[in-house]
Amino acid sequence: MEGYLIYIIFFHILGAIIWIGGMVVIRLAVHPALQNIGDDHIRIARTLEVTGRLFMVVLPFIIILLATGLYLAHLFGFRGHTKLSTIVHVKESIWLLMTLNYGLMVWLRFKAQDAYLKSNIMVAKKMLAPISKYLLPLNIFLGMLAIFFGLVLRGF
Ligand code: HEM
Predict the structure, then answer these.
(1) SS3 119
(2) What domain count does the chain have?
(3) Is the CB of 95 under 6 A from ligand 1?
């Protein structure tokens, strides 16, 4: 085994931990706490700040996951029509779905920010609502699938 392989796997797993862990913490710990802020303006401002920071933190790790994942698949020779190469394609598809979903969340957040800056609180709320209701839970679920398939690739 090449000596640097441990670092490639390390960064692949680190990316998964930070991307998925970040979403879990925001959805299950920060989001419920934000709902206790009674003032609409303050709650939306803090929600915009928290989501903005989360999206900035995870961005480099999304790229790192793709790069290290593709490199690992190449290194282990997962190509052709074997069962494991199919699982690599499944993981690539999961990554793509998660990244498109991430892009949608970033777009909705920018729309919400625009509305908030124009004091259009109703529109800001409408734009932010699907992020916590559907999009974050969906990406958390997809991320867990990707971790599971990572273990299958390892040979379990
Ligand atoms: C382009 C997409 C991806 C490719 C090509 C890919 C490829 C791989 C490969 C080849 C392995 C096996 C490493 C080994 O044998 O030790 C692996 C493991 C892993 N992958 Fe991915 N991956 C991708 C995306 C993701 C995503 C999006 C996540 C989670 C958000 C993820 C989480 C993991 C984890 C946690 C492991 C470690 C499993 C273990 O310890 O064996 N991967 N991945």
Answers:
(1) coil
(2) 1
(3) yes
